[in-house]
Amino acid sequence: MRNSTFMSRFQDWLSDWSEGKTRISLVLVLAVLMGLLLGMVGYTIIKQIFYDLFPRPPIIDYHDPVQAAELLKTDPVGAYWVIAVSWILGTVAGAYVAARVAKMGQFAGWIAGVLLAAFYLCDLFFQPHTLLIFVLCPVLVGLAAWAGSWLGMYVNVRKQIRADQGSAPIIAPEVTETVVE
């Protein structure tokens, strides 16, 4: 019996390439990219709306620790939670769309969530933030990616079940008469 490791199975899968595998790979990549784009756009719009409603005080150079500390003192605590809420909403939407488009379970949503977490962490380097928000990013985005991809998979499965029930021919049961004497 051959040692069945991930790499050996992966090499076997790659050695016999077909048009079906090309299509599956392309659909997966496009689904992840759609989810990533939707999550990034959603995050950016939600964050911008909040900052338009509640503008942050101007800062000349937030890389200066003194100025950054002053900004963090003047920002309301809710300013940081809107960042977390926009992460959650953007990730749920992105993972949901990736899972719905890919129609391969939750895998596409998880990948979109990992890429969105990387985007959010990179975005934190360009804006003032607290350590708590930086630590919460992977946890919140991970939970949101799980929820969005689960919801997308659930909707796909329910849609398939309804389609299968609608296409199944309705067969009337045979009526047999039994005579009771």
What does this structure look like?
With 181 residues, the protein is an all-alpha fold. Helices cover 75% and strands 0% of the residues. It has six helices and no strands. It has helices at 6-15, 19-53, 65-74, 78-102, 107-124, 131-167. Helix 2 packs antiparallel against helix 4, helix 2 (19-53) runs parallel beside helix 5 (107-124) and helix 4 (78-102) runs parallel beside helix 6.
Q: How far apart lie the N and C ends?
A: 65 Å
What is the strand tally? 0
User: What is the general shape?
Assistant: elongated
Compressed to H and E, one letter per element, the order equals HHHHHH
Classification by helices and strands:
mainly alpha
Please indicate the percent range of residues in DSSP E strands (runs of 2 or more). Answer: under 5%
Report mean pLDDT, rounded to a whole number: 79
The portion of residues assigned to helices is: over 70%
Main β sheet profile: none
Number of helices: 6
Radius of gyration, Cα only, in angstroms?
A: 25 Å
Low-confidence stretches: none
**Quaternary structure of the protein:** single chain
